[in-house]
């Protein structure tokens, strides 16, 4: 996918995912669940994934958050659903690289590149990464466990 | 004379920019900016008379003792306490921990009640949980009224002679409401309880006289009143300090001890100051008190009331702003942009150079009274100006465009 969103499109994507978050629901006990919150911001989010044979069969989330955390988590769930755990790890890694302003593979990030400017508001980096960090921990936990 | 230009010149931070805008600092409830006088006083200790306190026989060590104790005297006078009734702490949280632990070991008994309110700062809640655990005491809460205030009526409803300690914020850090301390003291003492006042949000902004208010303990932080971080004060009535168990033990707070466990403690306040203290911080705190005294606490209180009223009147005219505490007397303004999450609103203001805080502040109040997930808090201090408020209000009008913060 060619990714050259202009500013207008980026704003629209963020607002769309904020107003209509995707995969915002609670998974049952077959899902791996992780709770993400932080002392320094308001976001409190549960990230959930159903992993079968190293494939993310389903990814969902619920909780409260600002526009940036809501939209980025929503985009994350769409992006990672039905990916293998390996692919998911690659995407998450590149997302973090983008946020840190390091060279990254934009192709694999699809809509998630709308958060490329997050470092302009350093206080919100936590919000733009909360869902991705949650998934990262689920995947790491899965590997260890 | 209140010379705002001269005052602002004393604060190097007021010359800073944020996101390419002149900094507008409206987060004074979290911490305040420091004037050169405070920075210099602290630096002077490091540059020209470093030595430990209460430990040396040479001239420089003597000067340290003199300056350290002189800072204590300034703080004592500031709240109308005796010099030996003021203990240096690292801040309000440490003060509250010292009192809670001390009372748990030396005063509270099984079944006693510790009374707090539903609107306290975590630092005035968690130490009491610990104290309750240690002494097998119980925590009970003064319910809030319909506006989220702690009122005398509600205190009267729940207090009994079993309430051995009542610990409350003088001014709430969430909504800025002030309690009627004098009358609270009366009722609490009539019931035989001790009154611990959390002055973190009051002592920096108005005259607080411990004798007039007749509180048993008062705690506050230097950094919220122009002073350095990591320094604060705990006031206790002298006879209570004599009985209070020290949380910290160690060098400097004992007179004698032997291997059989016989220990002699120093008298208060030294009894509570184990180990090398934050000497530079204490000296800086003293300089902050001088600075506030030079302006005058009455003038500071009046100026802040004016700024608050000015801000509220302008904010009230904005259709997209919800104010939660327009009638509170302190300089804390709790608000939200309509239909914008608090954090996004605060980020928009950040992108315009304005420092405010978004947060949960107090879950109970948010859920029960404000009916929102989070709020934005703007908290003013005397060095803020009407021009800053004008600019702030202009930016508030742009709430809808909060994503602008990411596309500048
Ligand atoms: C009412 C109240 N109590 C206690 C504290 C804790 O103060 P410190 O962090 O300086 O210990 C604060 C600071 O935010 C406060 O507002």
Summarize the structure.
Chain A has 145 residues and is α+β, with helices and mostly antiparallel strands.
User: Helix content range of the residues of chain B, please?
Assistant: 25-40%
In the predicted model, the low-confidence regions of chain A spanning at least 5 consecutive residues are none
Task: Say what oligomer this is.
Answer: heterodimer
Order of the strands making up the biggest sheet of chain A: 1-2-3
Note the main sheet of chain A: 3 strands, antiparallel
Please, could you describe this protein's structure?
The complex is a heterodimer of chains A (145) and B (408). Chain A has a single domain (7-143), classed as Alpha-Beta Complex (Sufe protein. Chain: A). Helix content of chain A is 43%, strand content 17%. Chain A has 4 helices and 3 strands; from the N terminus they run αβββααα. Chain A has helices spanning 7-19, 67-80, 85-99, 125-144, and strands at 32-37, 44-52, 55-64. The longest helix of chain A has 20 residues, at 125-144. A 7-stranded mixed β-sheet of chain B has the order 4-10-9-8-7-5-6, sandwiched between helices. Chain B has a 4-stranded antiparallel β-sheet with strand order 13-14-17-16, covered by helices on one side. In chain B, strands 1-2 form a two-stranded antiparallel sheet. In chain B, helix 7 links the parallel strand 7 (163-169) and strand 8 (194-198). In chain B, helix 4 (92-106) runs parallel beside helix 5. Chain B is globular, with a radius of gyration of 22 Å. The interface between A and B is medium-sized, with 22 and 19 residues. Residues 91-93, 121, 123-124, 169, 173, 198, 200-201, 221 of chain B line the site of pyridoxal-5'-phosphate.
């Amino acid at each position: 996918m060619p990714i050259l969103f202009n500013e207008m499109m980026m704003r629209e994507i963020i607002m769309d995912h904020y107003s209509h978050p995707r995969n915002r629901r609670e998974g049952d006990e077959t899902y791996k669940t992780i709770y993400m919150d932080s002392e320094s911001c308001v976001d409190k989010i549960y990230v959930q994934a159903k992993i079968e044979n190293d494939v993310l069969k389903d990814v969902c989330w619920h909780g409260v958050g600002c526009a940036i955390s809501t939209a980025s988590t929503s985009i994350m769930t769409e992006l990672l659903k039905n990916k293998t755990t390996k692919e998911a790890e690659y995407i998450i890694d590149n997302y973090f690289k983008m946020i840190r302003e390091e060279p990254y593979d934009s192709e694999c990030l699809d809509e998630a590149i709308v958060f490329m400017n997050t470092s302009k508001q350093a206080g919100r980096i936590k919000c733009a990464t909360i869902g991705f960090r949650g998934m990262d921990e689920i995947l790491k936990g899965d590997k260890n466990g | 004379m209140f010379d705002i230009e001269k005052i602002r010149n004393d604060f190097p931070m007021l010359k800073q920019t944020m996101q390419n805008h002149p900094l507008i600092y409206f987060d004074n409830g979290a911490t305040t900016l420091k004037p050169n006088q405070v920075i210099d006083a602290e630096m002077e200790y490091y540059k020209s008379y470093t030595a430990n306190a209460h430990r040396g026989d040479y001239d420089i060590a003597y000067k340290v003792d003199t300056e350290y104790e002189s800072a204590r005297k300034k703080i004592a006078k500031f709240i109308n306490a005796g010099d030996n009734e003021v203990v240096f702490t690292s801040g309000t949280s440490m003060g509250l921990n010292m009192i809670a632990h001390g009372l748990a070991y030396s005063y509270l008994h099984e079944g006693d009640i510790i009374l707090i309110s539903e609107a306290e700062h975590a630092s005035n809640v968690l130490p009491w949980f610990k104290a309750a655990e240690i002494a097998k005491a119980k925590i009970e809460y003064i319910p809030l009224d319909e506006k989220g205030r702690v009122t005398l009526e509600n205190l009267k409803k729940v207090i009994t002679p079993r309430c051995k300690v009542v610990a409350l914020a003088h001014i709430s850090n969430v909504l800025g409401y002030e309690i009627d301390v004098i009358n609270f003291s009366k009722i609490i003492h009539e019931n035989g309880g001790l009154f611990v006042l959390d002055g973190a949000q009051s002592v920096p902004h108005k005259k607080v006289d411990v004798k007039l208010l007749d509180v048993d303990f008062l705690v506050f932080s230097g950094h919220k009143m122009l002073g350095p971080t990591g320094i604060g004060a705990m006031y206790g009535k002298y006879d209570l300090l004599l009985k209070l168990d020290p949380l910290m033990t160690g060098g400097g707070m004992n007179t004698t001890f032997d291997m059989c466990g016989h220990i002699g403690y120093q008298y208060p306040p030294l009894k509570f100051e184990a180990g090398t203290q934050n000497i530079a911080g204490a000296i800086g705190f003293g300089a902050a008190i001088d600075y506030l005294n030079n302006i005058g606490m009455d003038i500071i209180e009046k100026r802040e009331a004016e700024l608050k009223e000015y801000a509220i009147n302008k904010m009230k005219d904005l259709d997209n702003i919800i104010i939660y505490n327009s009638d509170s007397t302190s300089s804390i303004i709790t608000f939200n942009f309509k239909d914008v999450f608090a954090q996004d609103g605060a980020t928009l203001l950040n992108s315009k150079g304005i420092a405010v805080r978004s947060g949960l502040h107090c879950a109970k109040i948010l859920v029960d009274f404000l009916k929102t997930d989070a709020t934005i808090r703007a908290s003013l201090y005397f060095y803020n100006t009407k021009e800053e408020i004008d600019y702030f209000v202009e930016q508030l009008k742009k709430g809808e465009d909060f994503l602008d913060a990411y596309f500048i």
